[in-house]
Amino acid sequence: MSALFRHPLALIACLILSGFAQAEAKPAAKVDALAVVKHYADLGHAIYSDAESSARQLQIQVETFLQAPDQEGLIAAQKAWQTARIPYQQSEAFRFGNPVVDDWEHQLNSWPLDEGLIDYVADDYFAALGNIGGDLNIIANARINLGGEIIDASTINAELLRGLHELGGSAANVATGYHAIEFLLWGQDLHGHELGAGERPYTDYSQGAQCSHGNCDRRAAYLRTAVSILVEDLSYMTKQWAPNHAGNYRSQLLALNKQIVLARIFNGMGSLSLGELGGERIKVSLEANSTEDEHDCFSDNTHWSHYYNGLGIENVYLGRYQRLNGDILRGPSLSDLVQQASPDVDKKTRQTLSATMASLKALSDTAEAKEKPMKFDMLIAEGNQRGEDILSAILKDLVAQTRAFEAAAAAIKIDPTATGL
Amino acid sequence: MKLPTLSAPQLKVMTHSLLLIAAIGLTAACSPPPSEKVLINTSKLAILPAHERFSLSSQALALAADSFCAAPSSEGLDLVRTHWRTTVDSWSGVQNLQFGPLLIDNQAWKIQFWPDKKNLIARKVEVLIRSDEVLNEKRIDDASVVVQGLSSLEYLLFDGKLGSLKSYANTDTSTRRCALLVAVTGHLHGVANGLYDAWRPESGNYLQAFTKTGPDNPEYPDDNVALANLLDTLVAGVELIKRDKFERPLGLASSDGQAQIYLLEWWRSQYSREAITANLMALKTVFTAASGYGLDDYLTSVKQHSDLSAQIQQHFDSSLSAANAIPNSLFSSPAPRDQAELIAFQNEITTLLSLLKSDLPTALGISLGFNAKDGD
Fold first, then answer.
1. Which one, A113, A174, B136, B277, has least CB within 10 Å?
2. Which interval of the chain is the signal sequence (chain A) (predicted)?
3. Do the Cβ atoms of A5 and B365 come within 8 Å?
C-alpha cells in the first residue's frame, strides 16, 4: 500500500513544492503527525468538556424552572439549551471516524423524532410508517402496552427512558438526548413554513390546578431525567478524551498508527460535511420542502446547529477551538501538515472552509435578521427562491470542501477511508 | 551552422529510432492507452446505453399513463404498472452513478425519494390532488421532489388504499388523480431524457468530458480521477444495496436488529428484490464495460490482478444468483433472520463489497472518495 492517490497531479505538484519548502524551512519548526494527533485529542477533550459543562448549566436552569415554573424560567432553560448546542454541534466533527463517538451519539442527538412517543401532540401529527412507538405518549401513560407486553412506566427514571430509546429498533423513537429535551422545552412547532417555533406553555410544568395538558408531574420528571441522562452521557465522553486516563479512547488513539488516526480525522471532517450536514440535514429538508426533516425543528435553532457543525469542521483542520469562556486553543494542525507537503493544497483547503463559513453565516444572518427574519423552516418552503439560493450555496461549498479534504489527504499520503475500522 | 557529421552506423541507429518513435506515435493514435480505453468503453457500452434505456422506458411509461387516463380500465392500469416496473429496472442502472449529470442539481432526487420515513409522499400527493392548482409538468417541476418521479408514481399506482382502479374512476378526485399521474410521468420522462441528452455525444457530450482527460479538463485532469469515479460508483452501489436496501430494513445489520420494513426501497410495489438484481447487473456491466475493455480487463492486463478480476465477476454472479433465489418479496419476509436465502444473500453481498472496497482500490492504486451516503 505504498501509494493510494486520488489526485496524482496535486501530489506531483506537492512533491515538487515540498522539496522547496523543505529546503527553506527550519527543521525545528516542522510539525509532525504525532503532534497533530495529540492536539486533536486535546481539542476533543476541550470541546466535550464544554459540552458537559454547558449541559450542567442547562440542568441548573431546568431545576430552577421546575422548582417554580414561570415564563422567565422557561426562557432561561431554553437559552441554556441553545448555549449547550454550541459546543456539542462543534464536537460533531469528531463523530465519524471515531467509533467511541459514533456508537454513542445516537443517545444524544438522534433526530428526526416521533415526538408522540414522549408527550401530547397535535391532531395532524404523523409518526414514521410502521413505528409502534410513535403514539405511545410516555408522559400520559404509567402503563405502556406494547402489543401485549406491558411496561411499567409508573416511575420515570433513567432506566425507563434509556430502555424506551430506539424502541423496536426504530430511530424515530427518540426518548433521550438534545432533541427530546428540545421538544420538552418548546413543544411542537405548529407554524409550518411560517415564522414561529414551538410554543409550549410554561404551565405544562405547573403542579396543581394550573397544570396544562395534564400529567405535569410526570412531564417534569421526564424533563429532569432526560437532562440528567444528557449530563451523564457527556461526562462519559469527556473522560474518553481526557489525558492520563488509562484505557480511555484517547490513549487507544494515541497508540494507533498515526496514518490511521489522520485518516480518522479526515474521515470525520468529510463525512460530516458531505453525507450528514450536506445530505441528511440540509438536502433532504430542502428537496422535500419538509419541516419534519429540519434538525432543530421545535426551537428553530437549526441555523445555529448547522453553523457550528461547519465551524467544528474548520476547527479540526486548523487545530483551533474557541472555548465557551472565550479562551482560544491552538496547536499543531492538519493544515500545518498539509502546508508542509503542499502550500497550494493547504491554501485551497482553507479557502473552501472559509467559503463554507461565509455561506453558513449568510444562513444565520438571515435567520437572525432584525427585520423579517427567515428561519430554516421558512427557507425550505416550496418556491422560496432566496432560501434555495442560500442553502444550495452551502451544499455546493460543502461538496467543494469535501473534495479539498480528499486532495489534502492525498498530499500527505493519507487514504481517508483507511481508518482501521 | 555546422552540422555534426555522423557515421553511417550512427545514422542507421538514428533512422531506426525515428521509425520506432513514429511507430509508437501511430500506435498511440490508433489505440488509446488502457486507462482511456476503460473510460471510453465503460461510458459507451455501459453508461450511455443505461441512460438510453431509462429515457425510453420512462417515455413508454408516460404514453401508457396517457392511454390509461383517456379511458381508465383494469388492463390499462396493469400496463402502466408494468411500465413503471420496467422504468424502475432501467433507473436501477443509472441510480448508483457517483458522478456526472445525475449529480448536477440533485437530479436523482427528482426521480426517487427514499426512504420516506414519515409518509411524506402520501401526504403531499393527497394535498396536491385535493387542491385546486393546475396539474401539469411545470407545476410538478416547481413542487417538492416528494411528489415527483418514480416514488410518487409508486404511491399513485400501488398504494394499498388509493392506488387501485377505483381511485381513477367514479370518485370526486379521480380526474385530478389521473391528471397528476400524467403530469408526473411526463415530468419524469423529461428528467430521464435530460440525463441521456447530457451524456450523448450529439448533445451535452459529457461522454467527451469523462473520457478525454488532461490538464485542460478541469473536472478530469487525468484518467485516474475518472477511474476513481467508476470505483466510487461500484463501492457506493454495492454498499447501498447491502446496508440501505437490505440489512437495515430487514434488521440484519446487527445481531439484535429489528426489521424496519418501511425503510425498504419500493416497499409499496414489493419490488425491492428486483431493483437489487437490476442494480447488480448494471454494476457488473460498469465493471466489465459490458463486453468491452473494462476495469476487469485493465486489472488483468495492466495491473496484473487477473485473480481479483475473476473473483469480482464471480461474486457479482453469485450475488445475483443469491438474490434471485430469495423466494418472497423482501417486504413480506416474516422473520428475516430465519430465512436461509436472505442470510445467503447477505454473505454474498458482504464478500462482494469487501472485494470492491478493500482489494480493488489497492489493486488499482486509487483511493476511495467520500460519498453522499456517509452520514447515517
1. B136
2. 1-23
3. yes
Nearest-Cα distance to chain B for A213, in Å, is 25
CB atoms within 10 A of CB B15: 10
Report if residue B28 sits inside a domain: no
Q: Please indicate whether, in this complex, the C-beta atoms of A271 and B119 are within 8 angstroms of each other.
A: no
Q: Tell me the three state secondary structure of residue A171.
A: coil
B306-346, pLDDT tens digit by residue? 999 999 999 999 999 999 999 989 998 778 888 999 999 99
| Chain B contacts in chain A segment 275-314 (CB below 8 A) | 275-281, 283, 287-290, 292
Query: Cβ of A298: how many Cβ atoms within 10 Å?
Result: 24
In this structure, are B61 and B156 located in the same domain? yes
Contacting residues for B305 by C-beta, under 8 A, at least 6 apart: B299, B363
Decide if B123 and A5 are in contact by the 8 Å CB cutoff: no
Last residue of a domain, one of B210, B238, B256: B210
Do the domain assignments include residue B375? no
Do B289 and B237 sit in the same domain of this protein?
A: yes
Residues B35 and B204: their CA atoms lie apart, in Å, by 23
Classify burial at A104, counting beta carbons within 10 Å of its beta carbon; exposed 0-12, middle 13-18, buried 19 or more.
middle
Q: Is the pTM of this model over 0.80?
A: yes
Select from A180, A202, A217 the least CA-distant residue to A73: A202
Same-domain check for residues B182 and B165: yes
- Could you give the number of structural domains in chain B? 2
Cβ-Cβ contacts under 8 Å for A205 (sequence gap 6 or more): A65, A66, A69, A74, A211, A216, A219, A220, A223
Answer yes or no: do B372 and A273 touch at CB < 8 A. Answer: no
Enclosing domain of residue B236: 214-364
ipTM of this complex prediction, to 2 decimal places: 0.83
Query: What is the distance between the alpha carbons of residues B258 and B5, in angstroms, rounded to a whole number?
Result: 86
